[in-house]
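TL;DR need structure tokens for one chain.
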Amino acid sequence: MESGIGARGGCRHCRRGQGYPQLVGSDLDNSAYVEVLPKAVEQGLLTEEHIDQALRRVLKVRFRLGEFDPPEMVPYTKLTPDVIDSPAHRQLALRLAQESIVLLTNEDNVLPLDRSRLETIAVIGPFADVAQTGPNYTGEYSVFVKPLDGIKKKVGASTQVLYARGSGILETDDPEASYAEAVAAAQKADVAILFVGINELLEREGIDRNYLNVPPVQLELVRRVLEVNPRSVIVLQNGGPVSLASGRGGPSQQPPEAPAVLDMFWAGEEGGTAIADVLFGDYNPAGRLPYTVYRSVRDIPPMMEYDITKGFTYMYFEGEPEYVFGHGLSYTTFDYTNLNISNDVPDGPLDVRVDVQNSGQRAGDEVVQLYVHDVEASVKRPSRQLVAFERITLKPGETKTVSFSVPSEQLAFWDMGKKAWIVEPGVFDVMVGSSSEEIRLKGQFEVTAPGHWTAGARTTSASLRR
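>> reply
TL;DR here they are.
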């Protein structure tokens, strides 16, 4: 946005573009706000109240950080260098990596792998033996556990681990020789584990991808390994959405039929330990996709189309994605019962309560997701919209009641004419489940009176209580 303002000389629609983020809570910008916001106030796009509200929130954070206090009063000044990369921090890094991993596909419960029954494992792919850091903002580390390292440590000396890079990220000097090495390893193994994806060559700050798919050289590697060893697991490493489909359209666009697929993203210094824990069942995955994974850019509007109602996101996309928003599997199962809806909208919150039971044989986490749909809106509204979620941990057979209290304002839409958030009278659908498509229970409630909130008065999040 900042570079766009510079290029356009501070034009009116640029000031409008800077004003709208302020209305929805984007309080801080590197420099463009200094130039643009005063003019936005002059033109009535923002009020001084909006600016004051943003300033209060920015300064509140700085006060909490102790920036205005004498150093001796600030607890952060007492931290010593030995906390950096400390055992406690590495344990936190491991926990973050474990909790983030998403089990996308698990046909016939291929995962978790039973290491006692595996004599040989093939670890293949350009990301298997690489310390894949997050572009631009990764700090120093003492030890980076790569996926190959984590798997070797997990299975120990009793299991043979074969490694083949198989391909490069975008290209390979000798493709056929690299593929042949990977195929030979896969043929000898009881199971092959493929690590493919994208890195900073393809996306980082300042570089946007214009396609969604794993590079062709890696997809060919996946295809050849699956041909010789159908018992193969694919692990994705990526910063944004990435598809295993070819992206060419037609039958070839279908992703390879791997029995198990995981997404570990760029998991950090303990990522190799975390993915090994998940692969071999020492950690039960419960991560969820924070976006829709489309099969190709052919399935969505052009990149320069900023109106999401034209077919973007789980809220408005009408096609069949590769994976839906909020998707993520587990090594156990969960049952949902006793949906209860209490509605005091617009004067009070929408309260939703549901019982969730672990009906499987393993302890695990479930991410309970609450969606709503405005059935009778006068404007185009999402087919479903996430308004609250909670991650809970359940032992086998254990049941917990999850309660959501959603402020009325969270059901509102922005009325351009009234310059306010509006809830219209009418019927709303309530959907509770484990993803945007895996809806377990449904209900409805009716709003009988309109609601109206100014931009600064709107609550920004639902509260949760168990």
